[in-house]
Amino acid sequence: MVKVLFVCLGNICRSPTAHGVFQKMVEQQGLEDHIVVDSAGTAAYHVGNPPDRRSTEAAKQREYDLSVLRARQAIIADFSEFDYILAMDFENLSNLKAIQPAGYQGHLGLFLDFSEMQEDEVPDPYYGGAAGFEHVLDLVESASFGLLQHIKKGL
Ligand code: 4NP
């Protein structure tokens, strides 16, 4: 079993989008018995909340269902649980590195390292307009495809 955790700041925009998109790709390939997907935020502002409505609506247009997801904060125990902990931006990564236990054997890095697009970070869409949410989806779809190809090689 390979376990993947997507992490952003609030766990209401970027990482739930990654969670929903990657989960659907896993299911479409019949790999749900091999790959477990979750998401979390480095901050606790939105714990227990559903994803931002703008993320849910943009995802729905592309036939991804984010409605069942609820925000939680990333915790140190996640490092005992997850093989891949993938940050949306450098700040999220730096905050995760600060709580990473010594000897973590998994992969802690940027999600977009698995994308062939040029960007390193999934930009925070929270204070911007609709185009930002579409861009999040474009980046997330690209990196999810690359991540799944990568994980499948090791199954
Ligand atoms: P996310 O977006 O990290 O992609 O979930 C944000 C959500 C909320 C806030 C910032 C970013 N906030 O400041 O409340």
Which structural traits does this protein have?
alpha/beta, 155 residues, binds 4-nitrophenyl phosphate, Rossmann fold, four-stranded parallel sheet, single chain
Helix content: 40-55%
Strand content: 5-15%
Second rung of CATH, namely the architecture: 3-Layer(aba) Sandwich
Report the order of strands and helices: EHEHHEHEH
* CATH uppermost class: Alpha Beta
Structural class computed from helices and strand pairing: alpha/beta
* Assembly state of the chains shown: single chain
Report the count of strand segments. Answer: 4
Strand order of the largest sheet: 2-1-3-4
Bound ligand species: 4-nitrophenyl phosphate
- Our count of helices gives 5
Task: List the uncertain runs.
Answer: none
**CATH-defined fold name:** Rossmann fold
The name of the CATH superfamily reads Response regulator
State the separation between the terminal residues, measured CA to CA. 8 Å
Give the overall form.
globular
Write up this protein.
A four-stranded parallel beta sheet has the order 2-1-3-4. With 155 residues, the chain is of the alpha/beta class. Helix 1 packs across helix 5 and helix 2 crosses helix 5. It has five helices and four strands. It is 41% helix and 14% strand. The chain has one domain: Response regulator (Rossmann fold, 3-Layer(aba) Sandwich), CATH 3.40.50.2300. The longest helix is centred in the C-terminal third of the chain and has 25 residues. Bound molecules: 4-nitrophenyl phosphate.
